[in-house]
Amino acid sequence: MLVPDDLYYTETHEWVRLDDGIATVGITDFAQKELGDIVYLELPEIGNKVSAGEPCGTIEAVKSAEDLISPVSGVIEEKNIEAEESPEIINKSPYEEGWLFRVHLSNLEELEDLLSPRDYTKLIEAL
Predict the structure, then answer these.
(1) What does residue 123 show for φ and ψ, rounded to 5 degrees?
(2) With a threshold of 0.85, does the pTM exceed it?
(3) How far apart are CA 28 and CA 49, in angstroms?
(4) DSSP assignments along the chain, one per residue
(5) Spatial separation of the C-alpha atoms in residues 123 and 90, rounded to whole Å
(6) Average pLDDT value over all residues in the chain
(7) What is the CATH code of the structural domain delimited by 8-107?
(8) Exposed, middle or buried by CB within 10 Å (0-12, 13-18, 19+), for 49?
(9) What number of CA atoms fall less than 13 Å from residue 31's CA on the CB side?
(10) What confidence tens digit (pLDDT) does each residue in 27-55 have?
């Protein structure tokens, strides 16, 4: 499984890349492999507020549907329209082209509650 060193992770298999107060969010390589072929994606709308640990969208695969859980709190700045229109991009590129949404963070301290790459690797190895 691919676990990039420059990201934060959640126990629900989302990742966060921080860039100047903006958090880009996606699902991990592990999550997309577990889901299988992703066929539908519902992302939060631009301007919506999201809260850490709360559902903010839906991701559906051939075999299941799951809530997208926001790893951070803030306001949605951007969503990946290309991923909504062609959700299979998440299976091909979960960390680059398959990002889901960007959040203007309201609480930087929430990042301390996320997993390091090392801790996330331990989590998925234990599954």
Answers:
(1) -60, -50
(2) yes
(3) 23
(4) ----TT-EE-TTSEEEEEETTEEEEEE-HHHHHHH-SEEEEE-PPTT-EE-TTSEEEEEEESS-EEEEE-SS-EEEEEE-HHHHH-TTHHHH-TTTTT--EEEEES-GGGGGGSBPHHHHHHHHHT-
(5) 21
(6) 97
(7) 2.40.50.100
(8) middle
(9) 26
(10) 999 999 999 999 999 999 999 999 999 99
